């Protein structure tokens, strides 16, 4: 069985969020079960000289226009990645947009990507394509339209990003108007590319069992709950994992003092170095709460901002490593000027994020919704106790007063009162050294690797493969 994993981002080549981590780690866990390779765009900021030029090249056609496609490859941990070098798609210096917003031609950019990925699948004699989020959703429609003998799995990593474009998109992408119906691409008179993945894939998954249930409701369905209900018989929740080789506190090269569960005292050295580096003089003995996140509404920053004064009045230090929306940034910067126990670091920094996971006592995730969330699993590996809003994957992976993996502090209402209550419980836990250690030891033994999800995905692929025969 041959599978092509299609993603708009793959760590370490390009990353904007958890999708890149999954696209890196899941194929790696799957390689022992089947012949798997990956495909992603070659973006303008990537160095072609570090890649190998591939012998395969071809043309694709969208709406009467031909696009020349060249391919590059690289091999990472035994999995080959193909990079699609195409006009428009590869001209940009970012993945999806810049300071002015999303690139206006993203429909065409990712339409070209999908058409090229399907042609590559045909040339590689692939059986199944595993598509991820709206950027690769059109592959399913192209396969259906051309009646190709290929099966598709479509994974929704975040339903909030659907790839919605104007009606003229159909013409640009060369898509027949027969697909512009409520049961297919139409979404409030616009074109919704995520819907193509849901309607035309043979199997649809999302990244946690709880999120698979939530998205069928009005609250979490982002306007697609009714549409998803229609396809619920082929919708499954498969919990993500993390790359346990990359996120290992004992072998992590970013840490000044690597540690394991028998040497937790070394966490303190990491914390000391972190405090020195970010210029914090006092409060090292106080619990360190950290957030490592996109600065977006989804991640609960409105809730955090409304509670921040009260949070910072407690004996704790709060540190944020975030990147994103300017209005949140300005408000948070104001708080950082006023409070010594608040550090605000703006930017995306992989190494620093590892040092923070290793140094913090608690990782705060007040997300309004969270399809899976990787941070809480990384935190638990690094002996950091998660404090989370119990939604989506956070509900599935963090439990209070339970002996199932993993353990932490959970609040169930997205309110100031519930968030402050959770922080209060975390502070109490910090005082109870024995219980805190017990939880940390328990969490460090939990299996958050991708092995379990790989087995489930393999089962779905096998079923589809049998249908092909
Ligand atoms: P999402 O995909 O919604 O952003 P996930 O929890 O699935 O959230 O994945 C987030 C990933 O990105 C994690 O690996 C996290 O450590 C990393 N990350 C998020 N923000 C930053 C940042 N500012 N600097 C470094 N890493 C970050």
Structure in a nutshell:
The protein has helices at residues 18-30, 106-123, 133-145, 168-173, 193-200, 209-214, 225-230, 266-277, 301-312, 326-338, 350-359, 375-381, 392-397, 416-431, 433-445, 451-468, and strands spanning 2-6, 35-41, 52-62, 65-76, 79-85, 97-98, 101-102, 128-132, 151-156, 164-165, 186-187, 190-192, 203-206, 235-237, 288-295, 317-324, 342-346, 362-365, 385-389, 409-411. With 469 residues, the chain is an alpha/beta fold.
Question: Tally the helices: what do you get?
Answer: 16
**Overall pLDDT, averaged?**
97
Q: Note the overall shape.
A: globular
Spatial ordering of strands, largest sheet? 3-4-5-2-1-8-9-13-14
Roughly how many Å apart are the termini? 11 Å
Quaternary structure annotation = single chain
Percent of residues in helices comes to 25-40%
Number of strands: 20
Key traits:
469 residues, binds adenosine-5'-diphosphate, alpha/beta, 38% helix, globular, 6-stranded parallel beta sheet
Describe how the helices and strands are arranged.
Layout: E1 2-6, H1 18-30, E2 35-41, E3 52-62, E4 65-76, E5 79-85, E6 97-98, E7 101-102, H2 106-123, E8 128-132, H3 133-145, E9 151-156, E10 164-165, H4 168-173, E11 186-187, E12 190-192, H5 193-200, E13 203-206, H6 209-214, H7 225-230, E14 235-237, H8 266-277, E15 288-295, H9 301-312, E16 317-324, H10 326-338, E17 342-346, H11 350-359, E18 362-365, H12 375-381, E19 385-389, H13 392-397, E20 409-411, H14 416-431, H15 433-445, H16 451-468
The structure holds adenosine-5'-diphosphate.
